[in-house]
Amino acid sequence: MTSTALLTDQYELTMISAALAAGTAGRRCVFEVFARRLPDGRRYGVVAGTGRLLDELADFRFTDDELRALTGIVDEATLDWLAGYRFSGEIDGYAEGELYFPGSPVLTVRGGFAEAVILETLVLSILNHDSAIASAAARMVSAAAGRPIIEMGSRRTHERAAVAAARAAYLAGLTATSNLEAARTYGVPSAGTAAHAWTLSFAGSGGERAAFAAQIARLGIGTTLLVDTYDITTGVRNAIEVAGPELNAVRIDSGDLGMLARQVRQQLDDLGATRTKIVVSGDLDEYAIASLRAEPVDIYGVGTSLVTGSGAPTAGMVYKLVEVDGIPVSKRASHKESRGGAKRAVRTARDTGTVVEEILYRDGTALPPDAAGTLNVRELQIPLVRGGDRVDGLPTLTDARTHLARGLVSLPWEGLGLSHGEPAIGTRFADTPTPETP
Amino acid sequence: MTSTALLTDQYELTMISAALAAGTAGRRCVFEVFARRLPDGRRYGVVAGTGRLLDELADFRFTDDELRALTGIVDEATLDWLAGYRFSGEIDGYAEGELYFPGSPVLTVRGGFAEAVILETLVLSILNHDSAIASAAARMVSAAAGRPIIEMGSRRTHERAAVAAARAAYLAGLTATSNLEAARTYGVPSAGTAAHAWTLSFAGSGGERAAFAAQIARLGIGTTLLVDTYDITTGVRNAIEVAGPELNAVRIDSGDLGMLARQVRQQLDDLGATRTKIVVSGDLDEYAIASLRAEPVDIYGVGTSLVTGSGAPTAGMVYKLVEVDGIPVSKRASHKESRGGAKRAVRTARDTGTVVEEILYRDGTALPPDAAGTLNVRELQIPLVRGGDRVDGLPTLTDARTHLARGLVSLPWEGLGLSHGEPAIGTRFADTPTPETP
What we know:
homodimer; nicotinate phosphoribosyltransferase; TIM Barrel; 2 domains; globular; disordered C terminus
């Protein structure tokens, strides 16, 4: 195991040090994770990363190595406490693949002040990254309207973030990833054929035709030939002459993809390769994908825009203390106020399945009467950790993928719009308690 | 060691498989890493990640675990080749902390086709991420005009990307990081005091004053008290009453930071705390930092905008095959053409030290006569790897930090502008060879 314990901001340990000295480290606390708003113009967010968080929580231990690194940063008493650290509290949260909206309490951590405050960085790093990717990816999947999308963005983001991004993209409905570590670690289907370097490597010894022939010889006609290294029309002709009209696919990675797709489709059909698919890639985002909807494109490859969250590389979630020894608390000095008190969340739906609103209400109170009277009310939080241990039988990555696909179908029709808009449904705080005055 | 070998796109292994079958795996190749353009409106980029790349290259090995994961993805012959994989070629590159511009050959990898093509993803993931962060961070350091900046963005990016971001930010001149793993792994100075949760955790048992007293009791008056949990004016009064006028610093994390800084400065001075510093944080980017230049701010804390590259989360570098068995090659089907042939790079400067331009010329040829006649010509590429091994005595992270600080001083004055502009100096291709026709 590689310890994840130092993936932590120093202030968490400083606070623990002071709390141990003040005798407040064990105060019963509730921390909630939520996003104050969605990224600009987005209509929904997708919760992702929960599975990874539970994996990394299990490795959140201060071994001798970590304690040595912290010597001089925190005092002996704190080091002793860290040496015995093991989260012993409870975590509830929205299932992976659940939609979220501004204020949705996507994760709730209950425990002593010290044992819970220390998890802030790990929790937020994972949820903010993975949710940002899944949220962008889900829009791309909508835009593709059923056509497959392959994730190929590893080269444009941090090498480990790339693995998590491939996982989040698969959760959101992408078909496959180029990333081999994601295939190993999470079982995401992987894909890949050739880059321009392959064709270029035959310069001076047969050129593009030789490159295609070598690729077909080894990988068969089920492969995809990249036809835009030199001239696309020549590339397509070379591809079909070398592979025959049963070639699985050609890929275009540059230029006006819509115009080129039409031209290549016509050429392929003229060459009798009527079943040869067209893969397009090259700076695609959800808008570019949507703009290609009427074009003869069979498969999309997305990279940069996916791994950078298509303009929103972080979900902006925060980890806020909302309750101490049963007292609701919240910051009040600015526009940033959150609502104190641990919350539960339900989403109501019409009989058609279309969701109506999200209702948050104080934990420990009854569901508000107007919601309780509705026929279709779904609890959004599920137990994730009890007594510090992961609950058995949690949804798998595949479950999360299915859950999201269903969730997207449940949105009001305008919720899937790509243009800037409001959250697809409203979030209503029912029975919000009054925050405690200090 | 944790192998980094699967931080790789599948197409690299597919190409190797085909190359082994075709007998082309050993062709002598040169791959170059460069950015076709800088992020929109940026005037320079900062090379970062080289040190991390060399670390991860040493762990790029296919052990039994990796080979098992690849069974079914590539053939037996390829698995055998991967089992013995160890990069044996040469790598040259711009030193970490060097400035780069469009087309700058920031890394050059020489080796057999297969052994070099396989490194594309690892190389690009690291350089694209770290350079994006360092490039944004350098602008923040310029904007801060000598005031210290603390990096506290870990919660807004992938948990491992956060560690690399802290390293890149330190390279770019930030003073410290909140990230403890970056402190352990790279020796970046770490910092941190308390969050709003600390103050809130004293709700019902003394509130803000009790929280401040407990923090001071444990950490002394050298700490920073966060004064905006409830009312800032009350917070500042509580802080000084509890800590005395020798308190090191107060932090404001929300609101109109300029107005609040003036107000808090006045209040601190009135309370006799004339040496108590003001730390500001909360959605700061280089523009917000610059806008606070005239305000009584002593230290900035930056988070989200830093770890997301302030609008440019990836540097957009590519890894392109430029030479095969001595033949210059390049893709030509689109606007994406690169220039074939391995290149060397120099930067010329006036006697004042101000740089004039970057000149790229074909490796193996003499420096162009007009550059050779200039007094101040600096070679930009340094040897990084020879025979697969890291060269001894490479610049350290601290060296890179110093190198960048000097590099920024060498830019023409308009090069440090924050507004959208052109690259600070031009890049000229001298003696560009004609690419080979296939």
